[in-house]
Amino acid sequence: MPESVSFVVPCLNEAESLAAVLDTIAGLRDGVFADREVEVVVVDNGSDDGSQQIAEAHGARLEPCPVKGYGAVLQHGFERAANEIIVFADADGTYDFAEAPELVAKLGEGNDLVLGSRMRGDIRPGAMPLMHRWVGTPMLTFVLNLLHAGRGQQVSDCNSGFRCFRRRAFPAWGARATGMEFASEMLVRAMKSGARIAEVPITLRPDTRHRSPHLKRWRDGMRHLLQILSGSPTFFFRLGLATVVLNWIVLLVGLGWGPIALPYVNAFGLHTMMFALLGTCLGFNVFGIGLLLAARSVDEAGPYAPLLNVDEGRLLWGGIGFLALSALVSLVPILLRWSGEGFRFLALEKQTLVLVAFSANGVFFLFNVIAAHLLKDR
């Protein structure tokens, strides 16, 4: 007998569209899926428009979810679904549940997660804002694939809300976001766990409801981006380290040979070094973001693991001592030279900039490591 299927439908004031959605699923249960065990779970997030009565009248199992948020509702439904294959999509009628058999069939080819791709399918006029279609979704999908997708895991539509997966695979992914960003977290976690992911082209229809959508473009878009970035400490490690190294090269070239006359510009002088100093500080801050993200799970720390696993006493006391001694040895000659001028003019501007850069970078690095050790799992 073919595998059983659970349809999980999140619901918040969907009275205008819910009946048609449930009728479509009923048609599948009596038709294409007649040889399977099928259940429909409507997860209500506090509707006050009669959606609950519509769900029960159409034979769905109603599951109230007390925690607000798209991700919370879906996870509530997944936990209460009884069957091995779970299909979910919004109840607003924009996704066509009649296309669910294609996702289920693709899952049956040995995949763990199947996405309904709007970008590869048919987006009806007015169904998706131009900003989402040509900027938001492609940008987020590109970043997701760049940072997380393994071989054969690349997707074309990271924001699709029409998906199918195996119930037994979901707990290992560990997705737990409660808001709209759950869609991105689910993909990030699945990719990092090595899940087999496939796509099926789908149709996206215009939303015909007479109310504002739950999605908030700018807020939820940023949450999706932050969710994708938070799963890749290595990205911040590489970007931060590259920024620090590049700007230190500029500082050292300026100290030893600057200024250098180049076509149309004099470079590597004092002012170039000032901006390079700011660049090193920016780089260490980016590096520190990745370090703090890695501290949330030392097992997934990647290149930050040596810093997180080092003995705290040796690292911190040694780091403080090294910074203090280095600053003292470097600063004393400069102060003596400056005092000889009556503290009026400092003739060692370049050397002072390099010293400030070294000290500031050292402090940033040490404080970030301290913060990471305070936050890391113990």
Structure description:
The protein is of the alpha/beta class. The chain has 2 domains: 5-230, Spore Coat Polysaccharide Biosynthesis Protein SpsA, Chain A (Alpha-Beta Complex); 233-375, no CATH class. It is built from 13 helices and 9 strands. β8 and β9 form a beta hairpin.
Question: Top keywords for this entry?
Answer:
13 helices; alpha/beta; 378 residues; two-stranded antiparallel ribbon; 7-stranded mixed beta sheet; Spore Coat Polysaccharide Biosynthesis Protein SpsA, Chain A; 9 strands
What is the average of the pLDDT values? 88
Main sheet overview: 7 strands, mixed
Helix content: 40-55%
Named at the architecture level, the CATH assignment of the largest domain is: Alpha-Beta Complex
CATH class of the largest domain: Alpha Beta
β content, as a range?
A: 5-15%
Individual helix count? 13
Q: Quick one: overall form?
A: elongated
Stated plainly, the CATH topology of the largest domain is called: Spore Coat Polysaccharide Biosynthesis Protein SpsA, Chain A
Total domain modules? 2
Please tell me how large the radius of gyration is: 28 Å
User: N- to C-terminal separation?
Assistant: 47 Å
Helix and strand element order: EHEHEHEHEHEHHEHHEEHHHH
CATH superfamily of the largest domain: Spore Coat Polysaccharide Biosynthesis Protein SpsA, Chain A
Report the structural category. Answer: alpha/beta
